[in-house]
Amino acid sequence: MSKALTSKHFPKSVKSKIQDKSKTWFYLNIVLAVSLMAAGVGMLLWLGWQSADRQAASAPRGLIRVGQPAPDFSLPALNGETIRLNDLKGQVVLVNLWATWCPPCKAEMPVIDTFYQAQQQAGFTALMVNAQEDGATVQAFIKANGFGFPVLLDSQGELMNLYGVRGLPTTFIVDRNGLVRHIQSGAITEAELEAVVSPLLK
Question: How far is it, in rounded angstroms, from Cα 66 to Cα 3?
């Protein structure tokens, strides 16, 4: 049986041509690999942009900005009434979204309640809107802490979506004309309430 020929049996001129072709194919493979990688990266970027576009298209349209009218809403209160924001024009209104499981919410609530009790006669009210919890849970929490401000129930998250709320607590201060004058993510302090609300009450 004859043995297979290997490169050592080839003449030098043939060896040289084979080596040149091998180098050419080597570089072509590198170029091809780089091109495929670039195409893959481009596809990933394109898919990322498409995903971002879809997310933006599905994002809530009711994002609130300072200086614009506060979107009207109606929600049930713990006492059985239905409270509508536009019915409170002429007052300075604090709209606060919170939950019983939220530590910074619980930390700020005594501050808001104290300010509400002190400034209620001056035309200030606080609408404490619970985010997506059942009425019994909210009622027990409010009763245990003895808070006196109005508490509303956003059980379906409609107000959160309307106002574009992404975290709790979030506070909106609305002036007597129904314009948003302050937006705050995170717990609000007594000093901040004084600085923002007190001038609006004058």
Answer: 87
φ, ψ of residue 2 in degrees (nearest 5): -75, 145
Asked whether the bond before 104 is cis by omega within 30 degrees of 0, the reply is no
* Cα 127 to Cα 100: distance, rounded to the nearest angstrom: 15
The 10 Å Cβ neighbour count of residue 161 is: 14
- Return d(Cα 117, Cα 190) in angstroms, integer: 13
Measure the CA–CA gap between 116 and 143, rounded to whole angstroms: 17
Q: Looking at the structure, give the CATH architecture of the domain made up of residues 74-201.
A: 3-Layer(aba) Sandwich (3.40)
pLDDT digits (tens, 9 = 90+) for 184-197: 999 999 999 999 99
Decide if 134 contacts 155 (C-beta within 8 A): yes
- pTM for this one? 0.70
Neighbour tally for 182: CB within 10 Å: 18
Determine contact, residues 119/112, Cβ cutoff 8 Å.
no
- Give the chain's end-to-end CA distance (angstroms, integer): 110
The domain ranges of the chain are 11-58, 74-201
What's the CA gap between 105 and 150, in Å, rounded?
15
Q: What mean pLDDT value characterizes the chain? A: 83
Which residues, 6+ apart, have CB-to-CB distance to 138 below 8 Å? 78, 100, 130, 151, 153
Q: Which of 45, 78, 88, 99 lies closest to 150, judged by CA?
A: 78
